[in-house]
Anhydro-N-acetylmuramic acid kinase (Rhizobium favelukesii), 372 residues
Amino acid sequence: MEKVRTAIGLMSGTSMDGIDVALLRTDGRAVVERGPFLNVPYDPAFRDRLKLALEQAKTITQREQRLGDLASIERELTLRHVVAVREFLAANALDAASIDVIGFHGQTVLHRPDEALTVQIGDGALLARETGISVAYDLRANDMVHGGQGAPLVPVYHAALAANLINAALPVCFVNIGGISNLTYIGADGVIVGYDSGPGNTLIDQWVETHAGVPFDQGGMIASEGRIIAELADRYLNSPFFTAGKRRSLDRNDFPPPSGADAELADGARTLAYVAAASIIKSAGHLPVTPTLYIVCGGGRLNRVLMLDLRDIARRQGAQVISAEAAGFNGDSMEAEAWAYLAVRSLDGLPLTFPGTTGVRAPVSGGVVVKP
Ligand SMILES: Nc1ncnc2c1ncn2[C@@H]1O[C@H](COP(=O)(O)OP(=O)(O)OP(=O)(O)O)[C@@H](O)[C@H]1O
Ligand SMILES: CC(=O)N[C@H]1[C@@H]2OC[C@@H](O2)[C@@H](O)[C@@H]1O[C@H](C)C(=O)O
């Protein structure tokens, strides 16, 4: 039997809303025992620092470059992760010595798959030193070296979860609605297909932040007051991203937000919720078989308007949409769990990505492992 390890996964996603911390006991293969979860939100001032990092990263040409404030923001980000790990350990009466490895995502500040350039800031050595725990980080880079899109990496974890689903009726499709959305299809024959499916919450967040001064549309309340503006929705849904022959991974800035002239507040939020939902089903059209079951994780599942739209569009194709919770999972912690799972796979040199997930030439492992 393979060695079962205790791992912590740390995810700071494209929404830049905070750090997700999750514990997983796993052998990096079929054994997956999910543990506690903690979300440590960023304060508005630090979110502004991350936005500055994204802005300054635009001129990066070599992935190790840390221009302008990037080096100091990377250190601040890492130290926030140190605090998050300490809080998590204390809250769950855990000892650093009981953790075998941390999977550290860092913050994506630039992602240009066409140039094989992806940059996640986060100092793995500093995190290892400060926590006293080994860290696996920079998990995307090796995929790109081998011709992959560098994302998504979660599919291999979704596949492990699907294998553990009781009465799993395959095929099943996991959907993550984060800042960007991505999906993973697991076929009855075990085939795994994964790719980014389109804009998720980022457009909604940017819209309501600019026009209502709130970071996100809680529960879809703002959207529920509006109507869909078809021309605006079509502007997004007619993007060549959806019809291209090759699936491409996305940068947070690939779909720019609408301008103030495009809509009133509520109509804009309503339209962008619809765009997020419709994007998923449109992109699912590239899957080998039309899914009959979508399991939704990520913050977007808490936007009721988005979920109603998704259910409605999926129903027209005979498909059912359920939340991660309805399938027995935790929709908030799934990506952090995935990073714990990937860290263990990285330690064992197991593949993280596959031709069917990132388009990598052959299955490859990845990540840099640093001991404290
Ligand atoms: N109660 C809620 N109602 C509506 N939307 C919500 C709610 N809670 C969170 N969200 C949305 O979910 C987003 C965060 O989702 P999540 O944490 O899954 O994204 P992420 O991990 O940062 O992104 P990605 O998966 O692209 O890396 C928030 O920015 C917000 O738009
Ligand atoms: C470059 C990058 O950070 N991509 C993220 C982003 O957020 C969602 C989607 O785009 C996905 O491709 C990926 O994250 C998840 C965790 C992944 O790699 O599976």
Q: What stands out?
A: The chain has two domains: 5-148+336-370, 155-327. The chain has eleven helices and 13 strands.
